[in-house]
Amino acid sequence: MRLLSLKIFWVVLLLTLFLMPKGILAHEESQDTQPSGVKQEKPLAVPDLADLIPLATELSSSLAVLKKKLAVGLDVSAVEKSFSEIVANLEDHSSELQRLKVSEDYRYGELIELKTAILS
User: Fold this and answer.
1) Could you tell me where the DSSP H helices lie in 34-107?
2) What is the mean pLDDT of the chain?
3) Do residues 93 and 118 touch, judged by C-beta distance below 8 A?
């Protein structure tokens, strides 16, 4: 009987030692990690007047460049011409690829040549 009560005592003592610090530490961590009601924000860095003048000149020069680009506009006919050339080129290569698919004795080198021609 005495041996059994001694074993129970040691088991309870060990469980208490192992479980208590975890519970206490978990409780302390949960209190530390809880966000406070007031969020602390970093104050924004406000540039000085001397810093604003160069920034304003950069912005005005960028605006002038953009206005020039918009005034020139986009040459739609040139874009359409280049697209039509691209489409015709792809159609030629597509028909060549279909021909290679139909023929069962094509070589890997032919496919590589076709790929490089398409990429170029």
Assistant:
1) 49-72, 76-102
2) 77
3) yes
